[in-house]
Amino acid sequence: MKKYKKNFSFLMLCFLFNIMTATITTAQTQDAPIRLAVAGLTHGHAGWIFERKNKTDVTLVGIYEPNTELAQRFATKYNLNASLFFTDLNKMLDAVKPEAVVAFGSILEHKMVVEACAPKHINVMVEKPLATTYADVLKMQALAKKYNIQLLTNFETSWYPTTVKTYQLANDSNYMGAIKKVVIHDGHQGPKEIGVSKEFFDWLTDPVQNGGGALVDFGCYGANLMTYLMKGETPVSVTAVTQHFKPLIYPKVDDEATIIVSYKTAQCIIQASWNWPFGRKDMEVYGETGSVITVNNNTMRIRNNKDKPEQTIQVTPDDVPVYVDPFSYLADVLRGKIKVPEFGVYSLETNVIVVRILDAARESARTRKTVTFK
User: Fold this and answer.
1) CA separation for the pair 4, 23 (Å, rounded)
2) Closest to 353 in 3D by CA, of 241, 225, 257
3) For residue 191, what are the β-bridge partners?
4) Is 280 a domain residue?
5) Is residue 208 part of a domain?
6) Does residue 318 lie in a domain region?
7) Is 197 exposed, middle or buried (0-12, 13-18, 19+ CB in 10 A)?
8) Most buried pick, 88, 188, 324, 367, via CB within 10 A?
9) What are 17-70's pLDDT values in tens digits?
10) Who contacts 224 (Cβ-Cβ below 8 Å, separation ≥6)?
11) Cα–Cα distance between 235 and 63 in angstroms, integer?
């Protein structure tokens, strides 16, 4: 009997030791930085990943950029080791074996990045929008599902505390009632006017590489926010008008776009422009009993029919569950610390609908007819 007790005690100790070891290993894994690679440097936002020196959630392991002169400029500016750079995407993926890749090339190149990464089970986060066409996005979605990878889209407005607060007031409370009308303004004075790099300008003003002009560049914000606010509801129809106010600067693409996205019980007007007198990313959301107007990322004006007059409030990351750094969001998703909501701002499901709306808007502007969704 004593022998059995000793064996049982020994087995229990082993069992407890294994549990403790597994717990420690899991904790270490959750805190370990993700191995991250960059695909492309031509996007004007590419510098973001190199400017977060104080973060420890990501380890940069490789950079793909076929333009060696551009790569050298980044290496010099950010003091990057030459060994990080590759001119062949697949060779980089095989050499450095990243867990995730962030795409900072043209929108057209997003599909190429997913095609390279998905079969290797490498997760991808792209800059907005997800793709140039709905046909491409369906192929990318199929690859992501087949190989079980995360395919996220990063929008600046996803980092805004006011974006999350607006969703809460519209959907998680009775403050404003059901959404009826949303007006979203996005854009700036124009790519040339604000001084983007030549590499960025070249593809941003190309109808194939970017998929359009202001309609795509800034219309995507409105489509993303409205899909998020409507919890993934598919629109009934899309009607769009595009114009060329500055044909000498932007001869190939629109610089002004207005998109009307109609739902069964709501309407969204997206005003995307390279002609604003200043940069703006704000929206007006009107419900049955109240309204929310986001002035910027932290300031909003709210009012309902019981609360008068209108109030101006400040919202910070301490007030709502929001990530102000997209790379930290990506790291926490891959480490299992958070889940991507099905129709969250970053989610694949949301951004497939976004590209479908943009596709329809382009077609509507071209044919001067409303495009109906089936």
Assistant:
1) 28
2) 225
3) none
4) yes
5) yes
6) yes
7) middle
8) 188
9) 555 544 444 444 678 999 999 999 999 999 999 998 788 999 999 999 999 999
10) 128, 129, 153, 155, 157, 158, 345, 350, 351, 354
11) 38
Number of domains in the chain: 1
Q: Which two tokens stand for residue 202?
A: 């070249």
Q: CB atoms < 10 A from the CB of 102, how many?
A: 28
Q: Is 38 exposed, middle or buried (0-12, 13-18, 19+ CB in 10 A)?
A: buried
Domain that holds residue 275: 159-322+347-372
Q: What is the pTM of this model?
A: 0.91
- Which residues is 256 bridged to in the sheet? 243, 273
Q: Is 3 exposed, middle or buried (0-12, 13-18, 19+ CB in 10 A)?
A: exposed
Query: Residue 139 and residue 214: Cα distance in Å, rounded?
Result: 25
Which structure tokens are listed for 196?
A: 């983007």
Is residue 221 within 8 Å of residue 163, measured between CB atoms? no
Kindly state the average pLDDT of the residues 167-178: 93
Q: Would the CA dihedral through 348, 349, 350, 356 be positive or negative? A: positive
Distance CA 54, CA 256 (A): 39
31 within a domain of the structure (yes/no)? no
Q: Locate tokens 């009997």: which residue?
A: 1
Radius of gyration over every alpha carbon of the chain, rounded to an integer in angstroms: 23
pLDDT, tens digit (0-9, with 9 covering 90-100), for 256-293: 999 999 999 999 999 999 999 999 999 999 999 999 99
For residue range 127-162, list pLDDT tens digits in order: 999 999 999 999 999 999 999 999 999 999 999 999
How many CA within 13 A on the CB side of residue 272? Answer: 28
d(CA 33, CA 332): 10
Reference 160, options 295, 8, 272; nearest CA is: 295
User: Which sign does the torsion angle of CA 309, 314, 319, 320 carry?
Assistant: positive
Q: What share of the chain is helix, strand, coil (3-state, %, to 5)?
A: 40, 25, 35
- The CATH number for 238's domain is 3.30.360.10
User: How far is the C-alpha of 308 from the C-alpha of 279, rounded, in Å?
Assistant: 30
Tokens matching residue 317 = 């990351």
Question: Any idea what the Cα angle at residue 373 is, between residues 367 and 374, rounded to 5°?
Answer: 130
Which structure tokens are listed for 340? 């991507």
Q: What is the mean pLDDT of the chain?
A: 93
